[in-house]
Recover the amino acids of this structure.
């Protein structure tokens, strides 16, 4: 029961994923939604690395986790540039009030 | 329970508790700083899974890069005079019920699936050599494409964030 197995890592990543989805669904601030996305990407990475260790797939799982980290960095930069533009246009970043493409 | 198990539970508790605070606290700055502890906890989990290079990359890229970007985003999108930076919430009750169901389904699926566990016979001391060899052989094309993607993202972010002078 307390011996750590593959299931422990999978359950940890499932709970982290659920928390990320909860953050995306309930928060209004666009930056908080980005934080939820980062939590989800981290949970996916834990799955990749856990299966890489327990599944005898060599190092491919770790390589893909590395790629996910690179994509997360690019995504965060682009998304924050967009959020800055939204703030300049609407003077807030509450995603439930922004329903126009231009002012 | 040996040291490995104790360390796993320690890092798991750090990760999950701080992730819970990230999505429930109303102050956006607090959320960003709790995200720091979440990233450190996940880096510890990587170390326990024999992915040492990935743990260092996690700390350098997530804590050193993405978290700073998020903090910039929080600071730049709130009025400076506004001392407490708060975020509104919506649909709390239905979201809690739905996410609770989702979490229960996912966790039970993870527990009751009969995963075929077959650990590698020997784990090398460090993963850097194997990762580097894979990056320039099997995954060379993806590696180069990711370099181009990062360049495009850099140019795109700079040109989107700059306001055009009209």
């Amino acid at each position: 029961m307390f011996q750590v197995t593959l299931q422990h890592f999978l359950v940890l990543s499932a709970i982290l994923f659920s928390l990320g989805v909860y953050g995306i669904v309930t928060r209004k601030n666009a930056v908080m939604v980005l934080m939820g996305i980062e939590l989800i990407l981290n949970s996916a990475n834990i799955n990749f690395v856990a299966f890489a260790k327990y599944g005898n797939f060599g190092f491919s799982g770790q390589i893909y986790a590395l790629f996910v980290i690179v994509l997360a960095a690019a995504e965060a930069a682009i998304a924050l540039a967009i959020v800055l533009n939204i703030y300049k246009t609407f003077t807030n970043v509450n995603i439930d009030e922004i329903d126009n493409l231009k002012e | 329970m040996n040291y490995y198990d104790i360390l796993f539970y320690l890092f798991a508790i750090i990760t999950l508790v701080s992730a819970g605070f990230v999505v429930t606290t109303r102050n956006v700055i607090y959320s960003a700083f709790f995200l720091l502890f979440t990233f450190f906890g996940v880096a510890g989990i990587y170390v326990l899974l024999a992915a040492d290079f990935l743990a260092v990359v996690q700390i350098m890229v997530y804590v050193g890069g993405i978290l700073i970007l998020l903090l910039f985003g929080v600071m730049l999108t709130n009025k400076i005079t506004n001392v407490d930076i708060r975020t509104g919430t919506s649909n709390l009750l239905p979201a809690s019920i739905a996410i609770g169901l989702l979490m229960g389904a996912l966790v039970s699926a993870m527990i009751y699936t009969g995963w075929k566990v077959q650990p590698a016979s020997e784990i090398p001391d460090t993963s850097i050599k194997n990762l580097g060899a894979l990056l320039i052989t099997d995954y060379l094309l993806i590696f180069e494409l990711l370099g181009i993607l990062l360049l495009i993202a850099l140019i795109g972010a700079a040109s989107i964030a700059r306001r055009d002078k009209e």
